[in-house]
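debug: dumping io for the single-chain case to check the tokenizer round-trip. Nothing else runs in this session.
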Amino acid sequence: MRVAMFLALWWSFAASGAAPTVFLAGDSTLAAKRPEKRPETGWGEALAPAFKPGVRIDNRAMNGRSTRTFVEEGRWAELLAALRPGDHVLIQFGHNDQSCEKPDRYTPAGDFRRNLATFVHQVRERDAVAVLITPVARRRFDAQGHAQPSHGDYPALVRAVAAEERVPLIDLERRSMALFDRAGLTASRRWFLWLAPGEHANYPAGIEDNTHFSSEGARCMAAEVAAGLRELALPLNPWLANDPLPRCDASR
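debug: decoded output
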């Protein structure tokens, strides 16, 4: 049934020539940033060059949001209202859902899983395509210099929902960890919001942020997402740019 839906969407858009909108739902790691937060950059801001002209990126991601708060604040309902048949929704949550020390955003594992499944069902009800993305890794290394996971069970829950619902999945956690592992502890800093005191007016005291990205890091993550999309059989594939986004050099 789902394969038939994909094929129907594929042929529908091939015949009409209508470019889809790619919606992004998620947290600060992909959200657009305010001027006072620069040079922090979300990977969603760097994704547009992955597509041919005509494809619109509608980035609904917001700092600090979990699946629960994205629903409670009406952001998911607004996204659904804007959704049209053939559109695609890239969904990446987990950073804030797993923050049990922050009750304003924490989402228990069972609720997180149900929320993702509900998102998928509601997107499909509108003849659009959901793509689940595991939360991008934080910059964390063990004593031997190997990148480490940092989101507990939440990435596995995303994978489980993708398998159960037969949803296209981009495993950005594993992709980003592999990239950080190859780069190593020191070289990977350039992809994150690491600034020395006085280096940028927005951070006069400097900053060492191992969660949020520099503009270069955002481009790296966008390239990983774009590479993941190319590997999936989606109605979106004909709208991917002929020249793929260059993957990042992870040499140490």
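debug: round-trip ok. The chain has a mean pLDDT of 94.
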